[in-house]
């Protein structure tokens, strides 16, 4: 038995190594135009088959024309990566933020991963800010070369940064005609795109300018010290506090934060950087019990830079924000009764997982088959959040302020759209990156283009907050627009939060 076990592990290891090698070799091969044109047709046919509300932001005629036109530009053999840079801008024109090709890139072996784990990153040791076609460093985490916050990066290895920004901006899909999302998402993904193109390099030369003075710096992928490795090991230990507040080791920070902002505990503050769903129920129960016991009159919820996540989590959170019974979302539309069966049940399964999933498939098939219903000629997916729900016993009844910005996306936008519609909160900041009237996500069907082998995840569920639609085709607009500048971030000023605190102070004084 033990021999068979080790043989299976060895077989899986050999298979994985061969798969990585085969994948990387395929990335170098130029694919004939006729095969790439078939990939374009395949992508469009699958999107039309599965994506609900496909023509919300673009007409069928215009989208047909764009897919036909892209085929006319493919005249000679090109690599999968070159093909990605042609096709993804067309998919981004659909203006559905969750719909996007996965950028093809080199895969690395476990040995290479281990080597990288023992080294510090090059580019992610800085925080960035994008303004138009310019890239700035706003935080130097390790004081590398004493580079000052506010330094602009002009070029990387002698290629202008503006070239990359213009190139990568076209790849980003937004919800509708939103204008605030791209700068946030691009500054977070800029070096993901860059590394996908260039690979993991051990050094790079950046040309910078600060206060009119230009300088070149050579960034090196340094080895981690013993103290660094010791700290990482310590950070991986999962305490109850880390679980409930959802600790993120990569950034050495908590995903969820709760505190009172004044001595009398009259103002509570909850920050959620991602609706990960992990231990969220316990976090909210603890937080709102403390808020109730403190008899707080004001609550500030900060979902800035929160790209979304779990619908179940925002449903739970809303139960603490609504004093009355509520419905969070409208019935969620899908394209057909069989849509839930298109979720690639066996995706990324090794031999052992495949065996277990095969045994469990009848139960999965039964559950998914009865998870849809038809009404007025349309199909809908059953979700708990579209039913009337009761508020929690510790639901907050005071005044709520919510902080939003262009990186408040997906579930963050559903939550804030509902709060605004119900006049349950005052929204402060800037237009959210996610749509006000709903988005297509839920769960995905992971398609692979047959010739380029590029992955295409397609959202299958149209999720709408239970609101009166605005039909603006944009994000959730704040009640109080307050902009945050790069200078504010560098000097750790928060004009959006300050506006709320000043407003609370005025109300307290008036009372």
UniProtKB/TrEMBL annotation:
Pfam families: Peptidase_S41 (PF03572). GO terms for biological process: proteolysis; signal transduction. This is Peptidase S41. Gene3D superfamilies: 2-enoyl-CoA Hydratase, Chain A, domain 1. It comes from Chryseobacterium shandongense. GO terms for molecular function: endopeptidase activity; serine-type peptidase activity. One of its GO terms (cellular component) is outer membrane-bounded periplasmic space. Residues 237-483 form the Tail specific protease domain. PANTHER family: CARBOXY-TERMINAL PROCESSING PROTEASE CTPA, TAIL-SPECIFIC PROTEASE. It comes from the Bacteria. InterPro entries: ClpP/crotonase-like_dom_sf, Tail-specific_protease.
């Amino acid at each position: 038995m033990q021999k068979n076990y080790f043989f299976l592990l060895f077989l899986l290891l050999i298979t994985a190594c061969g798969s990585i090698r085969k994948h990387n070799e395929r990335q170098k091969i130029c694919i004939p135009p006729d095969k790439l044109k078939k990939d374009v047709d395949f992508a469009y046919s699958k999107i039309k088959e599965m994506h609900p509300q496909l023509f919300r932001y673009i007409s069928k005629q215009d989208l047909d024309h764009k897919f036909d036109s892209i085929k006319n530009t493919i005249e000679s053999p090109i690599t999968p990566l070159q093909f990605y840079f042609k096709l993804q801008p067309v998919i981004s024109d659909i203006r559905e933020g969750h719909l996007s090709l996965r950028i093809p890139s080199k895969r690395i072996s476990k040995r290479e991963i281990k080597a990288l784990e023992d080294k510090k990153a090059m580019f992610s040791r800085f925080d960035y800010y994008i303004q138009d076609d310019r890239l700035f460093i706003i935080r130097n985490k390790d004081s590398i070369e004493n580079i000052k916050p506010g330094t602009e990066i002009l070029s990387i290895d002698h290629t202008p940064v503006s070239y990359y920004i213009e190139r990568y901006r076209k790849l980003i899909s937004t919800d509708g005609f939103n204008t605030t999302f791209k700068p946030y998402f691009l500054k977070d993904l800029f070096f993901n795109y860059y590394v996908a193109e260039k690979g993991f390099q051990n050094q790079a030369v950046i040309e910078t300018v600060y206060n009119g003075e230009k300088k070149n710096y050579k960034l090196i992928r340094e080895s981690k010290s013993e103290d660094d490795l010791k700290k990482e090991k310590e950070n991986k230990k999962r305490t109850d506090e880390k679980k409930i507040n959802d600790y993120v080791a990569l950034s050495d920070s908590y995903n969820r934060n709760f505190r009172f902002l004044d001595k009398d505990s009259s103002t509570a503050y909850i920050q959620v950087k991602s609706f990960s769903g992990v231990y969220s129920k316990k976090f909210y129960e603890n937080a709102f019990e403390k808020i109730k016991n403190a008899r707080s009159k004001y609550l500030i919820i900060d979902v800035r830079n929160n790209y979304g996540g779990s619908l179940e989590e925002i449903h739970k959170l809303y139960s603490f924000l609504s004093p009355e019974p509520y419905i969070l979302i409208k019935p969620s539309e899908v394209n057909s009764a069989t849509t839930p069966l298109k979720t690639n049940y066996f995706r990324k399964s090794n031999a052992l997982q495949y065996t277990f999933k095969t045994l469990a498939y009848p139960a999965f098939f039964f559950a998914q088959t009865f998870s849809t219903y038809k009404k007025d000629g349309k199909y809908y997916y059953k979700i708990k959040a579209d039913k009337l729900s009761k508020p929690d016993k510790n639901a907050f009844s005071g005044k709520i302020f919510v902080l939003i910005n262009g990186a408040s996306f997906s579930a963050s936008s559903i939550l804030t759209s509902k709060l605004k519609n119900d006049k349950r909160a005052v929204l402060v900041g800037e237009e959210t990156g996610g749509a006000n009237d709903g988005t297509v996500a839920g769960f995905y069907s992971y398609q692979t283009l047959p010739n380029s082998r590029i992955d295409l995840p397609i959202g299958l569920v149209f999720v709408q907050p239970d609101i009166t639609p605005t039909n603006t085709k944009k994000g959730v607009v704040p009640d109080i627009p307050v902009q945050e500048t790069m200078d504010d971030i560098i000097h750790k000023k928060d004009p959006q939060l300050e506006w709320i605190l000043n407003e609370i102070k005025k109300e307290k004084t008036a009372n």
